[in-house]
Amino acid sequence: MEVVYLNCPSEGSISNVESHVMAIGFFDGIHLGHQYLLEHAKRLAKQQNKKFTAMTFFPHPNEVVKGEKNRKYLTPWSLKVKKMASIGCEKLFVVNFDKPFAALSPYQFINQYILNLQAAHVVVGFDFTFGFMAKGDTDYLQKEGLKNGFGVTVISKKTYNAAKISSTLIRNLVTNGEVHLIPYYLGTHYETAGNIYSVRTNRFGTKSMKIAIDQKYLLPKPGLYQIEIQDDQGEYPGNLRCLENGKTEIVLKREKPIGSRLTVKFLNKVSTVRMASV
Q1: pTM of the predicted model, to two decimals?
Q2: Domain at 2-157: CATH code
Q3: Range list of H helices, 93-218
Q4: Where are the domains of the chain?
Q5: Which of 63, 163, 176, 180 could in theory staple to 59 by disulfide, Cβ–Cβ 3.0 to 4.6 A?
């Protein structure tokens, strides 16, 4: 997958861009709703014999528009790129979401980031908004599509148990420690990644390892969680303590050396009592 970084203003047609079908969204988590949207765009591209592309944004709009500091993500940047590639996206456009970009009118967004990128068709969610103060919506996008000759597909709301599948809902499940419910919305268990930086063995032979989870990952509230560890040697069950100070500690039956890179999948909560910081 090719990754193309775009800054504002994006004037003039981008060279060497073939006509394509483009999914647009922030896609944090790439949850089941996102997956449906992306797969729909992929099918359209195949039907029209065009490339399947996607457009996303970084950082999150709230970091620029609302001044949010140290935002955590369901899928930090490197994981999002990996997941987009696994879905089959052939080219990923990454727009630098800064103040000049946030100030664009809806028309300027369409002109610079749809027409100038030579998108033949765009696929968005029902609640997609764009342009200054989110004044552009799907109705406006469809009208401009008819005027300017590009197709627009709007994907309807996807729900589970009458709740809209959304990144916000999944973020709330994570922060509340309800990790066992996440697969119903995300399509898989919530996962993070980090590096082992301390190892110790207690008198019963149980291995306890402190792991530094990558800073951009959202973590569950303090408590004890049943997890599955993945590394280049396989998968292993274990428990993970999330502490009040944001630190995490893994309990496994086997030892991993300091510096080991691990993926941590959260399966269930064992206890949500407050855990002492160490």
Answers
A1: 0.90
A2: 3.40.50.620
A3: 99-102, 106-110, 138-148, 167-175, 183-186
A4: 2-157, 167-271
A5: 63
